[in-house]
Amino acid sequence: MSDNIEIKNKIKERFKALYGYDSCRAFFAPGRVNLIGEHTDYNGGHVFPCALTLGTYAVVAKRNDRKLRFHSMNFESLGVIESSLDDLVFNESAAWTNYPKGIMWAFKEKGFDIPSGLDIVYYGNIPNGSGLSSSASIEVLTGFILRALYGFDVSNIDLALIGQFSENKFNGMNCGIMDQFASAMGKKDHAIFLDTNTLEYTYVPIELQGIKIVIANTNVKHTLTSSKYNDRRRESEAALNELKKCCNISSYGDMDEDMFNLYSKNISNDINRRRAKHAVYENLRTISAVKALNSKDLNTFGRLMKESHISLDKDYEVTCKELNILAETEWAQEGVIGARMTGGGFGGCTVALVYEDCIENLIAKTGPIYYEKTGIKPDFYIVDIGDGPYEF
């Protein structure tokens, strides 16, 4: 918490320098990492994310008019970006502020009147472009702020749904519910086993004595990520619609391997068939992985992480050269239980479970191999599982 106070003071100083007063409140919402269950959240499957102690902070105060003033300490060169509650429309020139503006727009779409403007300063310690869901973090944070300042009657699950609605309809990214749900519903030292088809969830204790979660950042983010992501969703939906004509399912979460193998021939397009295969098998892997973790069978959990990555590469095609090099190098290191890409893909990060006394060796060996093959230096983060949003 002492780190939070230090960050709070730093943001408040910036707030006063920009806006000329310091009467404000401070809030936080976490980023997330997904241990397994990738690209299943919009396919009606299970996911297994956890909130991080990394995330997005904000200090904020209400105004007496309808003006909005945004500033990010991560994008100092952009200065203060001004808008209005009467101008909540997506605009490329609004840059990163399209995310908080989208949340305000979504609240209004859901029938909540925002009576006054805001002065806000944001600061995030999630590595930019890492795939650890900085967008969901700022969305949940902004929704949490609106609830706290204006007394809106919404639950944390509502905040997640509003965040997804905003990103889908305002920002044009057809994401599923996982990122916002993990940020809004995070619980310290627990992962969330979430059925994205029903939003039923359980908290699973992550008891990893002598084991840490290590995130490795490729430090690449390939272009056209949003369009490729949306393509994958369209391809998956097209295959599902063909399957629905020949079997009684509502989502890929209703299928097991035998059922998929029996009916997959009805998917006319080979690419779409591979997308569907990933959705079905990844859902089953996630269910099996949680059972393995509950049974303290870490070898099985690690094997399923590796199989997940291979499927994301071969069937869903959302990895990239750099992600594959990083994961394959980690697999070969002593003390690595499992490793896989995490997030939307096309760059970003891997997540690995690593025995604590092997982490130094992992970084020392993986970094140079990755650099030799790509010309890029990776970054490594040893992360802790934290809570959902809060005021401090």
Low-confidence stretches: none
Please report the total strand number as a whole number: 13
CATH architecture annotation of the largest domain: 2-Layer Sandwich
N/C terminus separation: 9 Å
Structural category: alpha+beta
Question: In DSSP terms, counting alpha (H) and pi (I) runs of 4 or more, how many helices?
Answer: 11
CATH top-level class of the largest domain: Alpha Beta
Strand proportion: 15-25%
How many separate domains? 2
Q: What Rg do the Cα atoms give? A: 21 Å
Major sheet summary line: 6 strands, mixed
The helix-strand sequence is HEEEEEHEHHHEEEHHHHHEEHEE
Residue share in helix: 40-55%
Taking all residues together, what is the mean pLDDT? 96
The CATH topology of the largest domain is what? Ribosomal Protein S5, domain 2
State the shape.
globular
Sheet with most strands: strand arrangement: 5-4-6-3-1-13
Topology:
Blueprint: H1 2-19, E1 25-34, E2 46-47, E3 49-62, E4 67-72, E5 81-84, H2 98-109, E6 118-124, H3 134-150, H4 156-169, H5 178-185, E7 190-195, E8 200-205, E9 211-221, H6 225-244, H7 257-263, H8 270-294, H9 298-314, H10 321-331, E10 336-342, E11 347-355, H11 359-374, E12 379-383, E13 390-391
Parallel strand pairs: 4-6
Antiparallel strand pairs: 1-3, 1-13, 2-7, 3-6, 4-5, 7-8, 9-11, 9-12, 10-11
Helix pairs in contact: 2-3, 2-4, 3-4, 3-5, 4-5, 6-8, 8-9, 10-11
